[in-house]
């Protein structure tokens, strides 16, 4: 009888440890993904801000998308030179 209780207790402890480990792994992956998304979003925002500021200061901004390059400048800058 005592042996059966010890086996059940051992199995219960192992099951709880497996569930705890799985939960911690899930939370870790979820946290990593959220931080990655926030970092990517910050990078996108900073890139757009830099492009807008360069164009606003009449600096020609070259963007290459795939194999095509586009040059951007603020319309106000073009009106000043005309």
Map the helices and strands.
Blueprint: H1 2-56, E1 61-65, E2 68-72, H2 75-81
Written account of the structure:
The protein is an alpha+beta fold and 82 residues long. It has one domain (2-81). It is built from two helices and two strands, in the order αββα. Strands 1-2 form a two-stranded antiparallel ribbon. It is rod-shaped and about 95 Å long. The termini are far apart. The mean pLDDT is 89.
Termini separation comes to 97 Å
Q: What is the rounded Rg?
A: 29 Å
Q: Roughly what fraction of the amino acids lie in strands?
A: 5-15%
What integer is the average pLDDT? 89
What's the structural domain tally?
Answer: 1
Quick summary:
With 82 residues, the protein is an alpha+beta fold. It has helices at residues 2-56, 75-81, and strands at residues 61-65, 68-72. The longest helix has 55 residues, at 2-56.
Notable features of this structure?
82 residues, alpha+beta, 76% helix, 12% strand
């Amino acid at each position: 009888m005592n042996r059966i209780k010890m086996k059940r207790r051992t199995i219960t402890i192992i099951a709880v440890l497996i569930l705890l480990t799985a939960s911690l792994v899930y939370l870790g992956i979820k946290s990593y993904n959220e931080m990655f998304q926030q970092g990517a979003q910050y990078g996108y925002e900073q890139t757009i801000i830099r492009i807008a500021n360069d164009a606003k200061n009449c600096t020609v901004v070259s963007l290459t998308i795939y194999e095509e390059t586009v040059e951007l400048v603020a319309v106000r800058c073009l009106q000043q030179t005309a």
